[in-house]
């Protein structure tokens, strides 16, 4: 950390402004930080206090849908980080501006298969968006059932 000679140039790979990966390499480790849905809130911003601007009919519903996605993503990442000791490469606290971070050291590459470590990180990045979408569909289905039961009575 203290010596600039030991750190490599960080690389950012971005799908869009909300979904990106930061890869920071050093002489004996690599840190991979992933921003899934840009869950992190700014200072003083509460959950549910997104800036709402009217306009079209679609803009009426998108803040709520985005908020559900953010909440689900935040809870899922928190669930994962609380169990970081079970995932040897998972860090408890992500890099600022990212949702989750993995730290792979030279000890991990000596103890584990390198290609399996890479496969795990790639598989995690592929599946996380799918998992959050499935959870969102499940929440919406449960909300629909509850609303139908409520309106029956």
From TrEMBL:
This protein's record includes keyword Cytoplasm: yes
Official protein name in the record: ARPC4 protein
Localization annotation: Cytoplasm, Cytoskeleton
Biological-process GO terms, alphabetical: actin filament polymerization; Arp2/3 complex-mediated actin nucleation
A Pfam cross-reference name: ARPC4
Family: Belongs to the ARPC4 family.
This protein's record includes keyword Cytoplasm: yes
Keywords: Actin-binding, Cytoplasm, Cytoskeleton
InterPro entries, sorted: ARPC2/4, ARPC4
GO molecular function: actin filament binding
Superkingdom of origin organism: Eukaryota
CC per GO annotation: Arp2/3 protein complex
Broad class of the protein's primary localization: cytoplasm
